[in-house]
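Mods, move this if it's the wrong board.
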Amino acid sequence: MNQSQQKPLFRINEYMTKTTWLHAEDALHLRRDDNDTPIPKIRLFAGLYNRGEGANAQLAHWLDAADARVIFADLSWGKAVDFVDYKGTNGSEPESRVLRINTKDDKVFFQLTKGPGKPTPTGAIMPAGPVAEKVNVGMTKNEARKMAYAVLEHMAAYATAQIVAAMQLPTAAIATKQKPKLTIEEADEALDDLFGGGIRKPRVTEQTHRGRVVRSNTTTETAPSKIDGQLVYRNGQPVEPGDLPIFQEYQAAHRGEAPFSRETATGWFYR
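Not the wrong board. Structure tokens:
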């Protein structure tokens, strides 16, 4: 596995003293090189330094995200932690990397070590000799809680972002699709058909004349109730003989205006 995979790591939390540092970094994007399987990690990067002289030692440990959630959840609550994680790289000279997190009294200690390793039948790399490099970083429980909450919050945000990215919502298509607009007359007829008509109030319209807005009251035109001597609804549908009484009663109640359709007339009659 190429640990960095050519992507800079986002630093989630920084902790520094006068001689040590411990940073938590986002490596949740990591995947296996052979089959592209996700192997999300939190990288703990620690070191020793002297002011004006630079770093004396620096080590990194790639903590599995599943372990990180549990460990940092316990630390966030101030619980006592006693955790050991064995990692390493195999090859002609296997290398062991070990992370230990321990709570002692009111402090939390992080220890990162590196040295010769030995592969086990399960594929893990265990220490096989004296430690070559070691970095110890201690902090108060309160500082450990701050780091833990920062890591947990970042991991939750990352998981949410992954879910949102996986949702293929056709938002662009929905936003660009526009419904055809109705004319005022078409809207009036649709309302009549839905609510059973009625006496329409005069509509206030506006016209511009020489830069001034002139308002006037107008009424909609009434469609003819007969075509070639045949009684019809306003949508052009002929009136059946059995519906004639309802049609005529609707006209009488609406100042001679014909119903928009048979459904309008019967809906008004049986309301």
